[in-house]
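Homework-ish question, so no full write-ups if that breaks the rules, but can someone show me the predicted structure for this set?
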Amino acid sequence: MLARLNLALLALLVPALSFAGDAISATEKQPLNLHAIGMFVLFVSMTLGITYWAAGRTKSASDFYTAGGGITGFQNGLAIAGDYMSAATLLGLTALVYTKGVDGYIYMIAFFAGWPIILFLMAERLRNLGKFTFADITSYRLNQGKVRTMAAVSSLTVVCFYLVAQMVGAGQLIKLLFGLDYNIALFVVGALMMVYVTFGGMVATTWVQIIKACMLLAGGTLVMVLAMSQFGFSFETMMGQAVSLHSLGEKLLFPGTLLPDPITALSLGLGLMFGTAGLPHILMRFFTVTNAKEARKSVLYASGFVAYFFNVILLMGFAAIIIVGQNPEFFEGGKIGGKVIGGGNMIAMHLAKAVGGNLLLGFLSAVAFATILAVVSGLALAGAAAISHDIYARVIRKGKATETEELRVSRFASVGLGLVAIVLGIAFEKMNVAFMVALAFGIAASANFPVLILSMYWKGLTTRGAVAGGYAGLVAAVLLVVFSKSVWVTVLGNAQALFPYDQPALFSMPLAFLITFIVSSLDNSAEAQAERAAFDDQYVRAQTGFGAAEASSH
Amino acid sequence: MSTNASQNAVYARIRKNPRFAELVSKRQGFATLLSVIVLTIFYGFFMVVAFNPNLIGQRLSEGSYVTVGIAAELFMFIFFWVLTAVYVKRANGEFDAITTEIIRDASKEVK
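A: Not a homework solution, just the prediction itself:
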């Protein structure tokens, strides 16, 4: 039983940016939560008001994709934090600390450490070279059609898997927190997402993310402070009680089953770090700021918020061991140490109720819902941009589409993605979708990241190399996840996994680099020569920002 | 993406400016140094987790619950963030000043 719960939690946490899996689906629908619904209605009316305002300012393609490039570093930092910290961060990571102690903290540092690297190696070049999508950068001096098609295919794959995982998790979470039916919950999320993205574009999406980030930071801090006050704000007092009460005892302070061997630890570290640097919706946020200066500041603020919040979660998780773990009210049948009401992911919610009553529980539930909405909106926008800007405008119309036509396609694409998300969300309701986010990160780290970083740093990159390496990374990541335990055994019902690790990055990412390198080096075509020659100008622009896309004035 | 002739001329002039080489080598060197620091500490920590997990749970002092692992991680959260602040300060100040100067010079000469 405990092993199963741990397994479910692990499955949930591998994709800690999302949440999914049987810990939630195994639970019953809860009674209607009026506080939560009231606060959520408030959030929705506020964001719809902003969308109405944003719709009036969304006229050009640049407004739609990048909010006209006029977002400040501070605003973008909050929005990135909002995009990056999903409901899984709040619910899944608190639960992980609650059940496994310091393992959860180790997991969090892996989620954080990618940010400084993104700043040092990528942020300013992204801003200086990109316009609307990261394919603008990879195809800068390469064959537009082939490279953009490849980038769009892998972006859409990442977006779809990520979106489905979010939608399934959303439906189950909302059923649990608000007492709404699963299908109704999906329609509400899908419909709101379509409204934000279709009418308000990046302006509305950014503000939804900013508001949500503020709510998340405030809600988490409030719960943490109220919980810590029960221990006189002493870490030592809290830990003393936690260690003496927890079934793991002293083991709470040691690494446990989450990182059973060095390969898993390394693959996880690589996948999380470089997967973050290849997620299309995160990369897109770098094009919303005025210039490279603001792009750097965005990372500074975003990583500050993320680091702060992870430490809040650590304290929440430890405090919950005593406050939730010793209160019969939160266990089925009132048996302490038995099954937690609502499943393992409800720890943070129970903690909110224990320290702040129904009002705080309602607030935190609304925060969780807002969080889901913000993340799916960012994903839908990135997917729509890949369809309209990369595939429609550049590949199909070869750059000859007017802005009005491109915008129309992007709006249809947003609605289409919303419908796809709802339909797939309903189709996958009973399935364990945890592998989907592992897959999304794996593909982002294996298909998007290698080509993106080489296009910025390596003169020798050619179209053939980029296309071969990109597709190789995509296929390898998909196959390795299919052969891993989470699909081969859990979904397909085979006895033994063919690939023993959950995260493919350690294998598929080097493969993508290697193939890109070999194919590019062997490529002696006239095209390849021209592409290498074009690197010098691209390099100057990447370094100085001269000729970079400018903010449109409003 | 098409770049027009005058823009290419500016790029060519920037490339010839010794200040450009200086900017690139300074900034790239700094960014690489900071990346190496972060990656070494981060993967070093993961190696300890993988190969010597007992060290992680060791307490810093008798009777305290602050372990080597918790202290090291808190240190990483703070130190990595401080490094981002250091990079942003230097890049947005010193490096951007050189960049502006280089672009101004190159644009002037073209006209």
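Now go work out the reasoning yourself. Hint: The longest helix of chain A spans residues 347-396.
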